[in-house]
Amino acid sequence: MRKVNVGVIGFGTIGTGVVRALKERRSLIAxxxxxxxxxxxxxxxxxxxxxxxxxxxxLLTRDYQDITxxxxxxxxxxxxxxxxxxxxxxxxxxxxxxHVVTANKALLAEYxxxxxxxxxxxxxxxxxxASVGGxxxxxxxxxxxxISNRFEAIYGIVNGTSNFILTQMCEKSVSFKEALVEAQxxxxxxxxxxLDIEGxxxxxxxxxxxxxxxxxxxxxxxxxVEGISRISLDDIKYATExxxxxxxxxxxxxxKDELELRVHPTLIPEGHLLASVDGAFNxxxxxxxxxxxxxxxxxxxxxxxxxxxxxxxxxxLAEKLDIDGNSQxxxxxxxxxxxxxxxxxxxxxxxxxxxxxxxxxxxLAKIAGILGKYxxxxxxxxxxxxxxxxxxxxVIITHEARERSMRLALERINKLAIVRESxxxxxxxx
Amino acid sequence: MRKVNVGVIGFGTIGTGVVRALKERRSLIAxxxxxxxxxxxxxxxxxxxxxxxxxxxxLLTRDYQDITxxxxxxxxxxxxxxxxxxxxxxxxxxxxxxHVVTANKALLAEYxxxxxxxxxxxxxxxxxxASVGGxxxxxxxxxxxxISNRFEAIYGIVNGTSNFILTQMCEKSVSFKEALVEAQxxxxxxxxxxLDIEGxxxxxxxxxxxxxxxxxxxxxxxxxVEGISRISLDDIKYATExxxxxxxxxxxxxxKDELELRVHPTLIPEGHLLASVDGAFNxxxxxxxxxxxxxxxxxxxxxxxxxxxxxxxxxxLAEKLDIDGNSQxxxxxxxxxxxxxxxxxxxxxxxxxxxxxxxxxxxLAKIAGILGKYxxxxxxxxxxxxxxxxxxxxVIITHEARERSMRLALERINKLAIVRESxxxxxxxx
Lengths: 430, 430
Prior knowledge:
Two copies of one chain form a homodimer.
Chain A: E1 2-9, H1 13-24, H2 26-33, E2 35-43, E3 60-61, H3 65-68, E4 75-78, H4 86-95, E5 99-102, H5 105-121, E6 126-127, H6 138-145, E7 151-157, H7 160-172, H8 176-185, H9 194-197, H10 200-214, E8 224-225, H11 233-241, E9 244-255, E10 258-269, E11 281-288, E12 292-299, H12 303-320, E13 340-341, E14 348-358, H13 363-373, E15 378-383, E16 391-398, E17 401-402, H14 403-414, E18 419-427
Parallel strand pairs in A: 1-2, 1-4, 2-3, 4-5, 5-6, 8-10, 10-13, 10-18
Antiparallel strand pairs in A: 7-9, 7-11, 9-10, 11-12, 14-16, 14-17, 14-18, 15-16
């Protein structure tokens, strides 16, 4: 049986899951794939921490160059996370003739172009199944399962923390803050949750998905990002009344060969499959020209699901290695179709808008008048009853409207003395 | 760029989609995969039919041996369907040193063991993504994405015809027959729909999935099969009232290293993701030990989705070919874990039972008495009101009960003079 030697750099949560799987499932994997994966070395700065199982001392090192310099190693798994030294490790590994497996979405979002181009030049591959959607085989599906497809759009719930919080708010009728605390208690949110709740983690993953599906390198700055921290329980309740659900979606759409890239809370119909994705789960909806609609759902994080994806990358790479250690390469086609990226101002969606307005005659006429002036037409209005309240919520659903028009209209409306607050949430029907 | 030569046998609906994709997307596929797929020959008995695009005459043949005997061809695509001569074509192709791609679930369900063993002995692969779930990359996900996982259960909506009919009944409040006619009108059901509506097509697919996931060759006869033709609109309505949905599920479960294999109409909670799978769509729910819950959803049939899966198999095989035309092989591990297959009588589920009974005192006591005698305990009962009716429906939900006990109890109950009809539908909570 063919042996393929593997080195793991980063022996934290995911690394521990990967090492355990390589140890305990070596024979299962060998039987299924015909490849004997040999774990040659593990690197981490902290070698004293307990991992729940024993690893031979000879396998362990604190110096990652013990792995990148080991000529017998074919595949290096980078699970250090963060930008530095993860980037340097991957570059060195590629230059030393190794293929690379990584779960590092932040690095791929920021330096993907540089890394993938280097890998391509050196005839090596970087595989990254675990960087998006945890245990969901979304990357392989896009890269191989749908290889003959042109992609039209991807809608993803790719941040489990945010989805858990929104689900809690909806099911338990609690505020954003209470739901966040609960998420932190259960280990679904970090102490500093900004990356997750403000949409940046989703944006990282969106960049990775976009590069793969649309063959275009995009930057984080090309993604419009809005998080969920300003979503109120009221808006969730009004949405529910209208048969809608609020999800933090990462969206990329090809509209007439222009790409839209955005992450924001989004109202979708409750009958939509993405609306049923609850708790810390992830799901990615892909529209492509041959297959049509495809949805993949599963755990977006966690030691074992993520380790499962890392190991599947190792096997996939190993299967493709020839005797010289080279392999067929997936190429990020620079799509000649994509003419440009749309700025957020040029994008159109339907909107849910909630105004807190003083309850007196003529309020609605004033608001509607301004919307009309900016070419925004109203699909429905409801004034939510509040007993003896001086300030009442007015909820408006618009037809499709330009972002720029909406922004300008809201600026005008917010200046009205009768309006105390306004909230706008984009809608998607797909 | 490496060239890989492909021959297509069977130029019908799917074959036409495959040939079109290979023609029109050759450069897209080559850019992405680094492999130039060359369509060398196409075989069909009927070469005169219009396919909507032109194919060079030199490519066409009526004799499949022109393809199996062509030494330059690396991969043969079998899209003839049915058992004969599809089986002979695949055997001949393997013996002549070709890898094989097929969409033929009936053949794989019946002769998979023989074919896969032959392929393994000859160091060739048979790929079959298109045999289950049309455009959904379920086979690759099980084979590669989840390669380090042990599987616990698979629940699939894998027959679009049945799912379309059940969805129509539910949404339009029409009878099974009316829904079937509508499905036939729209091209979702064949004139002779038995294979689809009686569950046999789902059983074929279940056998294919089971072999792959559980590493055990099973026969069609090992699958308990019950179709949807006896599902009444009343049962769908009562289910809806209880927050349940009826789906035709193909189920394989590993219960203490014993496999359960069954296809039957199943009541599931409306909040379950599978409950939202409507119309002709398919979805496969997979529970495995590292990833946990995974669901893949997409089109279960159709020319382009199925062709997409076939082409992805061709590329996956091509990527793994070495210069001798051999490749790494997926092996169906004969799982030493699976001790035996459970017969349907030994399986336990919860049940929905509906009796049509004469409306007089003591009816329920009699029915409940018999159920109790067979150790079946009742979770809830409701007698559906029917104005001035002499015969009324009584709906009972049981706790988990053995199939055998249920069968015997129903036999007894059906003999009661007060009972005119009984219907039992299994439930799953997962």
